[in-house]
Amino acid sequence: MKRSLLVFLLLCAVPLLAAAAVKKKPAGKEKKVAARDYANTLATLQTDMGDITIKFFYEKAPRHVTNFVDLAAGGFYDGTMFHRVIPGFMIQGGDPNTKKTEDPMHPYGTGGNMVDGQEKRLKAEFNDTSHKRGIVSMARAQSPDSASSQFFIVVKDSTFLDNQYSAFGEVVSGMEVADKIASVPRGANDRPNQPVRIKKILLTQAKSING
To answer: Does residue 152 lie in a domain region?
Structure first.
């Protein structure tokens, strides 16, 4: 406890010392960071099997869109795998546990976005978007308000999921890639025999893509 307090005090002292040694910058010189336009953001999942581009339904599920885009911007999904694939249904990914060798204490499919030692969970945003082919929705546990980082892409109309999961986007290109991922050989727990990973997620603006 004493050591933690000392580190905290040192961290607080460093900016003060630096401020004393450097002249104050003239007003108006600070670089402003533009607010992200979530409604017009596109996310391209660069996977081992090709690219999948998603547009978002910000007006229907703003918390889920913001959560996904912010995680993607920070590299959270880079290196994660699609740990559950079911032909004629969906592909699921977004578990940070899948970045490394599976730990029996934290098996694939149980990971989420940890903030200050606790998993961040989102309040459900069920909406009128039907889970048709190409829809992107959030995976969750039993509680409706338990979505965190895991998501799934529906490869076949699955309307029985409507009003039970928070749909927050749809695939606008690369559904053939999602189909290929859904069709890979799989073993127990619908896990691909050979890992299929998201190498990186590239964020762009829809208006710049469309000209």
So the answer is: yes
Contact in structure between 57 and 153 (CB atoms under 8 Å): no
For residue 172, the tally of other CB atoms under 10 A from its CB is 15
- Helix, strand or coil, per DSSP, at residue 48: coil
Q: Could you report the per-residue pLDDT of 4-57, keeping only the tens digit for each?
A: 444 434 344 444 444 444 445 455 555 555 688 999 999 999 999 999 999 999
Q: How far apart are CA 112 and CA 114, in angstroms?
A: 6
Count of beta carbons in the 10 Å neighbourhood of residue 115: 10
| Unique residue bearing structure tokens 């980082």 | 149
3-state secondary structure 61-80: CHHHHHHHHHHHHCCCCCCC
- Cα separation, 110 vs 84, in Å, equals 12
- Residue of 76, 66, 203, 40 whose CA lies nearest to 125: 66
CATH of the domain at 74: 2.40.100.10
Query: Token digits for 141?
Result: 């546990």
Query: Mapped to the 3 state alphabet, what secondary structure does 80-111 carry?
Result: CECCEEECCCEEEECCHHHHCCCECCECCCCC
- Tell me the sheet residues that pair with 17: none
**Structural domain total, the chain:** 1
Q: What are the residues facing 135 on neighbouring strands? A: 170
